[in-house]
Amino acid sequence: MTDSAIAMLDDHGTVVGWTQAAERLVGYTPKDVVGRSAALVVPPSEEAPTISAYVERCRAHDGRSGMTAVRDRDGRMVNVSRRVSMLRGQDGTVRWLVSMTDIGMLAQDSARHGSMRESLLTRAPIGIVVRDRQLRCTWVNDTMESYDGIPPDRRLGRRLTEAQPGFKTEAIEAVLRKVLQSGTTRVLEYRPRLSTSPCREHILAASFFCLKDADGQALGVCSISVDVTESRRARERLAILSEARTRLGSSLDVMQTSQELADLAVPLLADYVAIDLEQSIPFGEASSVRIGPTGERLPVLRRAGLASIHQGVPESPWDRGESVPVPPASPFAHVLRTGRPFLEPVLDTAPGAWIDHDPARAQKIQENGMHSLMVVPIRARHTLLGTALFIRTQDPVPFQEGDLLLAEELVSRAALSLDNASQYARRHTAALALQRNLLPRGLKGGTAVEVASSYLPADMDHGVGGDWFDVIPLSGARVALVVGDVVGHGINAAASMGRLRTAVRTLADMELPPDELLTHLDDTVQRLVEEDADAADGLPAVGGATCLYAVYDPVTRVCTMARAGHPPPAIVDPQGRVTFPDLPTGTPLGIGLGDPFESVELELPEGSLIALYTDGLIEARDHDIDEGMRRLGTALTLPDRSLEDLCTRATKPIPGQAPCDDVTLLLVRTRSLKPTQVASWTLPSDQTVVQSARHLAACQLTAWGLAGLQDPIKLIVSELVTNAARHSTGPIGLRLIKHQFLTCEVSDTEACPPRLRRAHTSDENGRGLFMVAQLSRRWGYRLASGGKVVWAETDLTSHVFEASSAPVEQGRRATPPRATGVPGREGEARSAP
Hints:
It is built from 21 helices and 32 strands. With 833 residues, it is of the alpha+beta class.
C-alpha cells in the first residue's frame, strides 16, 4: 500500500492532487498533471470513451476494484490494479480518490509478503480521510465511520484531536506533520476505541500520503486505512500454534503436559486457564469418560494445570492435584455430556444464572472480575480426558468465535500429547506394579543375616527396568543372596525379571552351589530367548541378564559367591574397611558362550556388611564406574549406622542428575551361630548307629532345654540314619543346629538323592520319608563333597503328634510339607525300630 499511486480527482475528472508514487508509476510530475484532465493518464475505453463517462463509471463503481491500464509519460501502457473511492466534503461536493498499483510490482511483493497487499487494495473495505495543511479533515468516505466511529459531521473541518477528544491521537497527528514536511509515505497501526462497541478490539493499518498541487507543494495529507484485526489475529494465532509445537509434549508426564498448555495460553489467549483431567488419568489409569447423551454420570475431575496473569493464581478455588466438583447445571457439565465446547462471551452473573449453583466459583468470579469464559473439551480417540477453562479478567475484550477456534486447536494439540503421556503413564504404572509385585515384599534373613533393601525406578524417560533382588532361606540356617538385572526397560523387562526370579528360587531350592546355579540359570535364559524369538506376538524378547548369587553359612561364616557379568559386591568389615572382592566376572546370562562360572569362598567376620547392587547405582553419564564404586564404598563406611540409613545414603542421587537406569541395593549384615548352637558327630556305619544317633540327639536336646522335641526328633534321626546306613558304605554324619528352627542333618557318602513315595498297605518298607515329612515343617537334601546331606527342620516349640511304625493311613495329611530337592532314584525308607 505504501507504493500505491494516489490521484485525487474532482467531479469533472480533473486531477486536483498527486503523489510521489503516482509520479514514479507514470512519470508525470504534479506540475504536468494537476489541474488537467485525467484523460492524460487514463486512455479512452469502450466502457469509458470520455472522461465524463469515466467519472460516471467511478460513481457507479464506488469502492470497487479491478484491473485496467494507464498511460505513462512515454506513451507506454502500464497494467495496474485500480481502486476508486468516493469522498464527500462539507458542502456536499464529491471528490474521487484513485489508487493504482503496478501489477508486476504487486506480484513481486505478494511473493515476499503473501497476499496482504492484494487483500488491502482489492478486497477489504478501506477508509479514506483527506486533510489540509492544518490537518483539518476536508474529505472523507463512508467506510471510515465504521472504523473509528466518528460521523462525517463531527469529523469534517476538524483535526483528529478535536473530533475524538480523550483518544491518544497526538502520535497520529505527529506522523501526519512528518508526511507534510517530508513528502514521504508513512505507515502506522493503531487501535481506535469505538464508542458504540467499547469492548471490541479494532486494529487499523493506515498509510499516509502527501498530496501535492501543481507547484509540487504539499496540498494536504491523505490517509488510507484498512481493518487488519482479523489478519492480525490470524498471525497471532499462527504464532501461538507455532509456539505450541515447541512447548507442548516436551514430557511424558500428564501433569506437566497439562501445565504446559496452561502456561502457553496465558497471557497469549486468556488471563486465567485451568486444565482439569478425569481423576484416574494422572495416576496412569485409562479414562472411562465416553462422550454420550445427557444424563450420564458426571466424572470426577482433578486439577492438573493452572496459570494466571496474577501471582499465586487467585482465580482458582482449587490447587493442582485437588478434586474439582462439576455442578450438573454448569458449562463444565454441558461440555462433559456433549463433548462440544462452550462459549460465554459475556459471563452471566444475574440471579438465576448457573453460577448461583456454584458458590465456590461465583465468589472467585466476583472477586477477580471474570467477564468472559470458554470451556473446551479435551478428547482423544473418542474418549474425554477432561476440560480446559479459559477466562478473561483484565483484558476487556470478550472471547469471540475466533478465540474459541484457537482454543480448540491448542487443546486438540495438547490432547495428543496428553493421550501419549496417559498411555505411557499406564504402561509405566503397570510395569512398576508388576515389578513391585514380583520383588520380595518382606525380606527375612533369619539368624544368618540382617537385611535391608532399596529399589529406585529410573526416571520417566526410561521407565521401569528388570532389576531384581532376593533373600532365600536355605537349609542349615544358611541364606542365599541374589541380585540381577535384565537388559532393557518397560513391562517386558519387568515380566522377564519375574520369570528369572522364579527360576532362581526354584534352582535355590535344589541347594545348588552358586556356580552350578548360574549354569542352570544361563540355560534357562537361553531357552527364554529362543522362545521369545519364535513368538508371533512381536513383543521384544529377553535380551540377556546379569546376576550375582551368594550363599552365606552362619555356622562357618563362609560366603560362597559367583557372578555372571554382574558388578562385584562391596564388603565392609566391622572396622569400616571396604573391599570389592576379585571374583571371576563370568559371562552375562543368555549369551550362549558356554564358559563355566566359578565360585569363590570368603570367610567373613561376624558383623560384616555385604552390598549387592545393580549397575544403575554406580553408573552415571559424567562419571566412570570406578568413581561410582568409590562413591558407594564411601557411603557404606559407617558401620554404626542402621542398614536402612546406609541404603538411603548409598542410593542418594547425584545432585542435578537423574538416574539413567534402575537403582537396586541389597544390604546384609552377617551374623554367626555360637558353637553351643551346633552339635555334630561322625558315626560308623554299623548295626548300632541308629541307636547311638537317637541317644546323642536326645541328650543334646535335653542340654538345649528342648526335651519336648525328643520324640519327633528321635524318629526323624532314626529314619534318616537308617536310610544312610542302608544305602552308603562310609561314615555317617549327624548334625543338629539350633537357630530359629531346629535342623537335623544326616550326611553320607552316597550321592543318590532320596525320594518320597507312598507305601501301600501290604508294603513292609517305604514309609520312612513320609513320616519325616509329617513330623517336620520342611525337609530336603543337598549334594555335598563326597556325598549328600538329607535334612529336616522342625519348630522349636514342642507339639502333639501321632507316630508309630504302623502304616500311615491314606489321607491322614492331605498335603505333606514341602520337600526340596530334585527327584532322583527312588530310595527305600522304613520306620525305625
